[in-house]
Design brief:
single chain, alpha/beta, Rossmann fold, 7-stranded parallel β-sheet, 14 strands, about 45% helix, Glycosyltransferase family 4 protein
Length: about 475
């Protein structure tokens, strides 16, 4: 196959997305939003993924809005005895790429560009097999930093070849984008050589700012009871415990008639989701708060009035919209969050945001205007903001903050903004072509793949010895 030569990119393009697991999470929300927004600009979009559970994915991935195809999931499991997740993820990606190539799906689609995120390991193989398509890699955050410091020394040693491969394989992308200036700085410090060779492009995640069709009635949740809202996956790095502790710091009078609602992504297959939810429930009980967990929409709405902390598992979008439409405050607890889409959703709904003063929220939340930024080390400061929202601010002050939040999101973080930014990057890739030797040329395609396979074999042998 010969490389395309273009002077001007076609106005309508075919863009293929490759994503490991199209479940529910910030990365998946971004992928779905990017795909829908590009599709709305007239492009043909197809998403290939190794896993998409209709019971645990965003609506657009199951209702026909997007063309989602599950491939590369029949040989390698997601993990082996709950271990070797990174190795299995890489092998599943290679399987996916090979399957869509060998079955001629790629040839039939004739993609102009690929949007690949989370996992860069298969980029050399993808470029070799389909030289015509340009590759945009979207780096949510360096995976090696996400896995850093976990486990004993031999478990960290097991990660070394994969961490080395992450940087090398990412260099095979024609363009690299990141989700915030915070992440751009982290990537530049982690891989200075890559940052020098690639012009890292910031593409903010987005929210759909178009008016939504009314799908629920105006009946207030829990008969109009005041509540503070936390939306995040049940993962320890999200530090949801901070919200529980800050809420417990309110006086009994300040908490009277108020509830903390903790809603978020929960997958019973994921041990951390199950374990952390139990830790949070135990923490609420230890702090003297009456807590309850609701696993369905119906039970969530029938909670007793004296429940102070309500945990909700993987809420459907209608309930999520209702929660955002009625909450007094969004409490967004992760420190050094790469970006954070939930604060945007809250501001668009007119809800002020209390977030950590680190990472992505410092680029979205304007302290004192659309919400508050506070140190995650100062639980008492979070309690003070909660008390301020519940008992001190006037209706006029809250309304002004609500209007400011809506205006900020519409002006800076709408889906049309992200779609145009991505479209411009794809056009630039198509016009410029590959300025370096392709993997079929001076840099042979086979040696990086051989290195990867050798490293994978070494990692398995080493891990089996270490865990044996």
């Amino acid at each position: 196959m010969t490389e395309k030569t273009r002077e001007q990119p076609d106005p309508k393009k075919t863009i293929v997305f490759l994503h490991p697991d199209l479940g529910i999470g910030g990365a998946e929300r971004l992928v779905v939003d990017a795909a829908v927004s590009l599709q709305n600009r007239g492009h043909r979009v197809v998403i290939f993924t190794s896993h998409c559970d209709p019971q645990h994915c965003f609506d657009e991935a199951r209702d026909g809005t997007l063309d989602v195809r599950v491939r590369g999931n029949t040989i390698v499991p997601p993990s082996i005895l709950s271990r070797f997740s990174i190795l299995c993820s890489i092998l599943r990606q290679l399987h996916l790429i090979l399957q869509v190539y060998l079955t001629s799906e790629l040839a039939n689609l004739k993609p102009d560009a690929f949007f690949v995120d989370q996992l860069s390991a298969g980029l050399p193989l993808l470029q070799f097999l389909y030289l015509d398509g340009r590759i945009l890699f979207y780096c949510h955050f360096p995976d090696l930093l996400l896995a850093q410091g976990r486990g004993r020394w031999w478990k960290r040693a097991y990660r070394v070849p994969f961490d080395r491969w992450e940087q090398l394989s990412m260099s095979f992308a024609d363009a690299v984008a990141v989700n915030s200036n915070f992440t751009k700085g982290v990537v530049s410090r982690t891989w200075p050589a890559l940052a020098r060779r690639k012009d890292l492009k910031v593409v903010y995640p987005c929210v759909d700012t178009k008016p939504k069709k009314k799908e629920t009635d105006d009946k207030p949740l829990w008969r109009g009871k005041k509540f503070l809202l936390s939306i995040n996956r049940f993962e320890r790095k999200k530090d949801i415990a901070l919200a529980v502790r800050a809420f417990a710091g309110l006086s009994a009078d300040a908490r009277k008639g108020v509830r903390l609602v903790v809603a978020g992504g929960y997958d019973p297959r994921v041990a951390e989701n199950v374990g952390y939810h139990k830790e949070l429930a135990d923490l609420a009980e230890a702090l003297g708060l009456r807590a309850m967990t609701a696993k369905t929409h119906v039970t969530a709405l029938e909670v007793a009035d004296d429940v102070e902390v309500l945990f909700l598992h993987s809420v459907p979008h209608l309930l999520k919209d209702a929660l955002l439409g009625s909450a007094r405050l969004l409490v967004y607890t992760p420190a050094n969050e790469h970006f954070g889409i939930v604060p945007l959703e809250a501001m668009l709904a007119g809800v002020p945001v209390l977030a950590a003063d680190t990472g992505g929220p410092t680029e979205t939340v304007v302290d004192g205007v659309t919400g508050w930024l506070r140190s995650p080390e100062r639980v008492d400061e979070w309690t003070k903001v909660m008390d301020k929202v519940l008992n001190e601010l006037s209706a006029e002050d809250l309304a002004a903050m609500s209007r400011a939040g809506v205006a900020r999101v519409r002006s800076n973080f709408g889906d049309t903004h992200m779609a145009k930014r991505l479209d411009d990057i794809v056009d630039q890739m198509l016009v410029e072509g590959r300025g370096r030797s392709s993997v079929r040329g001076g840099l042979s395609w086979w040696w990086p793949t051989a290195v990867l396979l050798a490293a994978a074999g070494f990692a398995v042998r080493f891990a089996l010895w270490a865990w044996g």
